[in-house]
Design goal:
- It is a single chain.
- The chain has helices at about 205-215, 220-225, and strands spanning about 1-5, 10-15, 20-25, 30-35, 35-40, 50-55, 60-65, 70-80, 85-90, 90-95, 100-105, 120-125, 125-135, 135-140, 145-150, 155-160, 165-170, 180-185, 190-195.
- The chain has about 240 residues and is mainly β.
- It has two domains: about 1-65; about 75-200, Double-stranded beta-helix, CATH 3.60.160.10.
- The strands form five sheets. Strands 11-12-9-16-19-14 form a six-stranded antiparallel sheet, with no helix packed on it. Strands 1-2-7-4 form a four-stranded antiparallel sheet, with no helix packed on it.
- A hairpin with a 5-residue loop joins strand 1 (about 1-5) and strand 2.
Length: about 240
């Protein structure tokens, strides 16, 4: 397995796989892939049907994941002695098979519309994961007893040892305006992003919605809808 970052402003993670090698990512998370890559339900898809396995079959292949916004793509090593980390739902790109990726609601966000929790992926196990963080990335290390206050939209990732609570701050203008404020308490590392995002993730594709709602049994149908008919010829576009 070989990973490569392409581009600068809005990078692309390109992962080359030898026959039999695989990675785990969201069903609709890929940007492009070669025809030797097959998709199948992940072992824990009964728990989280949004995840699937991308595997190189009889030939080596490549699958690419593009950053959704300008920013950085980080590689995270997960292993013994490290309890893992939590990332925003929109930040997860991919992980190696030994990595455990499970959804976590996180603390509730007062005053948020549509999505009422922080929306996180917990990354544990053993292996590598790739995460995208929008804008510039600032690392802040917290010792035991230290805390950091941040707007939830600027939180990108944090160690699993960091405790998070979200409170509601009263506006100072005399009106009834309130603002969410997250309190992150150490020990552990926090990765902050300079480009804010919404509190929840964006809308999912029709394929992702189908898999999320009906689980493993619908994965084959969702994949079939995405199959490219190699035998079909490109249509001519009339002016």
């Amino acid at each position: 397995m070989h990973d490569q970052l392409l581009g600068t402003t809005q990078p692309v993670l390109s992962i080359s796989l030898e026959p039999g090698e695989s990675i785990i990512a969201e069903v609709g998370g890929f940007a492009w892939m070669t025809d030797s890559i097959a998709m199948a339900a992940a072992d824990n898809a009964w728990l989280e049907p949004r995840l699937c396995v991308y595997t190189a079959t009889s030939e080596a292949g490549t699958v690419a994941f593009a950053a959704k916004l300008p920013g950085r793509i980080l590689s995270v090593e997960i292993g013994p002695g490290y309890e893992g980390c939590l990332v925003r739902e929109s930040s997860l790109l991919a992980g190696t098979p030994g990595v455990r990726i499970t959804p976590e609601a996180g603390p509730s966000v007062p005053g948020s519309s549509g999505c009422h929790d922080l929306g996180l992926w917990r990354i544990g196990g053993c292996g590598r994961a790739w995460v995208e963080l929008s804008g510039d990335v600032v690392r802040h290390e917290l010792t035991a007893g230290q805390s950091l206050r941040a707007h939830p939209r600027y939180i990108g990732m944090f160690d699993a040892t960091v405790a998070v609570q979200v409170a509601e701050l009263q506006g100072l203008s005399g009106r009834d305006d309130t603002y969410p404020c997250a309190v992150l308490s150490g020990p552990g590392m926090v990765w902050l992003r300079s480009m804010p995002s919404r509190l929840g993730d964006g809308p999912r594709s029709a394929c992702e919605r189908a898999v999320s709602l009906t689980g493993r049994g619908r994965l084959a149908m969702a994949m079939a809808a995405m199959t490219i008919q190699r035998s079909s010829r490109p249509r001519k576009i009339r002016s």
